[in-house]
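User: I need a structural model of Alpha-mannosidase from Muraenolepis orangiensis for a docking pre-check later this week. Nothing fancy, just the predicted structure tokens so I can convert them on my end. Input:
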Amino acid sequence: MDVGWVYTVQESMHAYVANVYTSVTEQLTRDKRGRFISVEQEFFRLWWDTVRRLVKEGRLEFVLGGQVMHDEAVTDLDDQILQMTEGHGFLYETFGVRPRFSWHVDPFGASATTPVLFALAGFNAHLVSRVDYDLKDRLQEHKGLQFVWRGSPSLPDQQQEIFTHVMDQFSYCSPSDLSFSNSSGFYWNGVVVFPDPPEDGVYPNMSLPVTKETVHAYAQTMVDNIKQRGAWFRTNHVLWPWGCDKQFYNASVQFKNMDPLMEYINQHSQELGVTVQYATLSEYFHAVHQSGLSWDVRGSEDFLPYSTESHQAWTGFYASRNVLKGLARRASARLRVAETLFARYVVSFPGEGPVAKDQALAKLRALRWAVSEVQHHDGITGTESPKVAEMYAQHLRQAVEEVEEVVAALLLQLLPRHEFRSPHNDHHLGSDLHGDGANEGAEQHLIVYNPLAWNVTAVVNVNVTFPMATVFDDEGQPVAAQIQRSPQSAVTYDLFFVVTLGGLQHREYLVRLSGTPCGEGTSCRATYAAAEGVRFERRGLRFRKQESGRRLFPVLNDCYTLMFDQDTNLLHSITDRVDKRTVAMSQDFWEYWANGDIKAGPISDNYIFTAVGPAVRAYRAVRMEIVPGRVVTEVRQYFYREEGDEDHAFSITTRVPASFAGGPPCHALEQSYALGPLRINTEVVLRTSTDLSTGRTLFTDDNGYQMMERPHRDFVNNTVARNFYPMVRAAYIQDQRSRLVLLSDRAHGVSSQASGQLEVMLHRRLWNNLPWNRGYNLTLNDSSVVRPAMWLTMSSLSSRSSRLHLRGAIELNNRPLVVPIDRPKRSRPGRERDLGAGVVPVRPVVLPPNLHLLSFSVPGWNYSSQHDRHLLHLDSGVRPEPDYGRILVRIMHLFEEGEDPELSKPVSVDLKEVLSGVGEVRAVEERSLTGTWDIDTLDRWRWNKHTGPEDEGRGGGPTEEFTVTISPKEIRTFFVYFRTDNTRENPKRTRREHEEDASVDASSFKQLDDAFPDKMSSKREREQKRKLQHFLTDLASLGSLQGFRYFQPWLRGREELLLTVVNEDPEVNCTLFLLAGYAKYGRPYAWIRSNHERLVSIGGVDSMVKDTPLKLKSITDWQTQEVRIWDVVNELVCLCTTPSPSNPFALDMRYVQTLPLPERFLATGALLNFLEAYVVHGNKDELHYDRVVEEVKPLRRLHVQSLLEWQKSRVGAELLNPPTMHHSFSLKPCLASTASITT
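Assistant: Understood. Predicted structure tokens for Alpha-mannosidase:
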């Protein structure tokens, strides 16, 4: 059962999945001989009632147990662990079971990371299926389909090895083509019907039932297949999988035919030579283990890439749906930010705090599940249909949006308790900003957070609408910055500035914006105003015929000198200034052409890459622009398909960090690319060509865990495609002296088709006429524009920086997060004492450079760490509250054994000391990878091997002094408990003080808390409280708006909104309503305040009573649905106007346009904010939804036009006079929309 692929989760649940679990449970309850295995837990989360007894009896067995059966080629290590942890935690919390065996039959190839993770999770054996067809043939021939697999060359044997079973050529399905029956074979329940199951229960293509007439033919076919398979294995136990995709949705029909068939075989076992029985995977592996045989060992190798035949290399999916791959990686990074902040918060506020823990945890879990879901082998791979891809993307976007609210709330509460030292109060900074102050725009406060446990110095980038900005840190000191025009917009600017942060530390920065530009190429205070840039003439390919390399333009820092050829506008060479070696290098775009007609030859599709021929250049001309700077220098290259094209098809933007005291490291060159829409049946690669002598060997990472050597291999057919490998985080080539590394922000396919060359496949757009692909809409007609990013480094092999690629990839994917905030409206209690006493920043959490804090989170499970106690709770029906005091910590050693003289050594860490920046550690428990096992009680099976004695392992559990030793490539998992009295501030501080400290007045939310006490509230009450908080926020947002055609709102207090609706009756031109969300009632209500008689019919007779709430559908639906303020307004407007307007939110543009310029700028910004919120969150099925979307367009134009007029007229002082409104309506949206874009 696939979580996605062609059909959405909801469609699959409706069509067959629910029937799978229901009918399987029914059948297993009826017959104790029955057995079944279930793999992916997302569907099971939606259905699991009445199964505990079957699980406890061992007749319903969970294998693998992850949220999904994840892909192994393009998934990231963090996300693999996450989805397994979520699935295992759910199973253990719910049933007290912990999976011991894997069922990984459908991922398209097998990674060497998998045996390591599965062993660390406590598995005894592992089952796979999809390995290269020619390798499977050889394994079958030599009875080598079962072996002991060691994924890492550095880890001790017993710590990582796992017995592995490879399914034979029949894979994980039983035969389906039977001459005497039909194509459903041994599947008597037929073929699934979408979208609705057949009402009569009769599915198409149901096989002939087992009867006296057919039983022998079925039995003989089954026995023949068992014997054929048995010849490929060493024991007399044969695993015969009875099932396949979308089966057992009508289990009673299946078992009704399986039972007599098996009974017949066993009755004739002497004649047939076979006995059969139902078995789970654990029963099968137990029988194999008991055989006592010794097994071959396969060490530190993977099974990638995967091919099903010579012309079907499954390497295309490495780059399919690039946008989804990028979205999934960004969502994972945002989850890490939220997890680490929430963990610090629950330690700082162990009791009742200003951020509701249950609500925050619920939003975190939603994002955990969304990130886990997309790791499915038909999700992150891009092999699903377009509607399923959109389902994944929608789940990710929605969950990220909710978590970003949590992040902002947590950061506000975790800010250091001091007054921001404004430069206004510093005599060094107060008086001589450029200009006399009248042209200053405004100030914006930013929080910048480092989610890694390393100290970092980095350049962040925010987008602003002012030509000048000065940045100050939280000590009031100026920060090195650079501002320049944005290449994406004529009215915005890119502001780069340098941040220095400790591990898991956040700091506050102030951006002072000014309407007066600094002179181009000059500095105003610490900010450098970059010039327009040097533009180079567009050059066509005909210039290549001339001698190149005569006119070179240098761009350099302390690490590199890059030479760009002015005759080609391409990179010419790069010089390692430390090693003093120059390497010839060029970068450009090439494309492979694909065949779309199955009659003309092999095709490319979502899965498969089959090139018609060698790659050809994807462009005919190149234009270049170089913008020099003192923080970064940008090199922009634009590639045109034809010399005369107006618009470019591809681009590369290279940012070269400047070298200066306190600046970022200079060795990483950030490159961002833009491609698309592509032409049909083209697959575009970025080709980096050098004169390094590499022999076509490259190195790629397995899931970000370890690097794998990939020598080039020659094949009779399809050599190009079969030499592509997945690049999840990193790839490099090297010769005997230098190493060239590319680090990526998402998965790609990568190859080295020539010596010194790296090709990274960035985008694919395909169409073919294969009926199967067209039927399921799997042709990959992806017309999107993709914008991936990579870091490029080059260094000597003897340099330590050449071995920091895995750390660099982590830093690329987890860059500092920028969050714009409103400045607090009043000083926090006690702040006056801090003024002038210096800043006390958040204490950092810093690990040694070769260790990585893989996880720091609050799982929120309610199970006891003691297994016996947890089972007692389950048996007694006791369900403890979520444990917020249990912090899940994972630490990983990044280096291989012997990779570096120093960094490859084992490292001893005192967890109490390292985590002291969070709180005082009182206890540490070492756990299995997914947290469900106490490491001291985890006893995995040992398998006999054809090798010498085992390496038992290194390191050890935490001592009384909390010290642990992490050896090369180890991942150690711990539960850490902090002292609950170790709060970060005065524990007597009340919750009201916390709420008043926030950037919005939260006193009405305090009343909500009084109405719903946390300790007494039910889950439903907590949900109602959350919804009412949203409703109050909506009231505040709508109450300040002016300019609607059909209604006018006025905010009256914190809980009330007066709404005047314009009527169609000219004699009674308006009706007044009161909308309120009183905390004491715990829900919203609406009252009519004028013209009662006109609207008597809408609420019955009771509505004529002034103090009786109206019986509105939207208010009634609020109890069970997500109803927002615009739903209520829409209903009231439609009730008061006949006919109902096509757009109840239509604007009175004449009124808006007549407003004075400053008011017009603010009003359009506020209206835009409201309408865009409706576009994002409103009901797209409403008839007026498209009209609202259209209304946004002219409003946005007017807003931008007002901004331009304001800039031209330089009336900045008019924007400074209103107290704080311009922060809400202008600056904050401008900064927040791009604040997370960093370098």
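Before docking, keep this in mind: The chain has a mean pLDDT of 85.
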